[in-house]
Amino acid sequence: MLTGAGKGFCSGDDVKVIFRSGEGYGNEGMQGKESTLSFLQDGRSAGGGGPLLTTNKPSVRISRWNNQDELDILVEAWTLQHDHYEVMYSLHQAGVAAGVIPTGPELLADPHLKERGMFQVVDRAVVGPHPYPRSSPMKLSESPDEKRQPSPLLGEHNHYVLHELLGLSGQELESMAEENIIGTEPLI
């Protein structure tokens, strides 16, 4: 999670930045020197409450780069007052390319992802059933739907691997367990 002002970099005429919103999550990327500058300088950026910048220092790439800390503070002061979707829509209205980095709960609740079955419930022995992303983000029409398996517990497959696959005897497994070579609980 980001804890300071916006973190980003300049590439050609683009600015790519992630800022915290009022919810405290990194989210928006702004691109394009002209649209970013106009967003910062006109009243649309603060919902009619005035410009974020009253100076033209960032009007050129080098000056913007040299003043990035000041810009980050000014922009984040605004983004922290709004939900990350509000910030994205305001940036879009100002002609600035922006996107949201959704939280885990937002991804799980997203109707688009739900409709496409991007998550499946996996029942794990210790923690119970929870949604997990599918093993593959793609669904191919002629490929079988793979069911995600829970991660194994410590020692859960010892008998299968050591006895059935490798041929060790039951007595050898008991001896290994007595010597704490294998087991189902951590030693610490």
Q: Termini distance?
A: 31 Å
Strand content: 5-15%
**Biggest sheet: strands, sense, closure?**
2 strands, antiparallel
What percent of the residues sit in helical stretches (DSSP H or I)? Answer: 25-40%
Give the count of helical stretches: 8
- Widest sheet: strand ordering: 1-2
Query: Which structural class matches the secondary elements?
Result: alpha+beta
In total, the number of strands is 4
C-alpha Rg (nearest Å) = 26 Å
Structure explained in plain terms:
This protein has 188 residues and is α+β, with helices and mostly antiparallel strands. The protein is 35% helix and 12% strand. Strand 3 (119-124) and strand 4 (128-133) form a beta hairpin. The protein is elongated. The chain starts with 6 loop residues before the first strand and ends in a 10-residue tail after the last helix. Mean pLDDT is 75; it is low at 1-13 and 43-49.
Descriptive tags:
8 helices, elongated, alpha+beta, 4 strands, single chain, about 190 residues, two-stranded antiparallel sheet, disordered N terminus
Concise account of the structure shown:
This protein has 188 residues and is α+β, with helices and mostly antiparallel strands. It has helices spanning 33-41, 61-66, 68-79, 84-93, 104-109, 111-115, 158-165, 170-178; strands at 7-11, 14-18, 119-124, 128-133. The protein has 8 helices and 4 strands; from the N terminus they run ββααααααββαα.
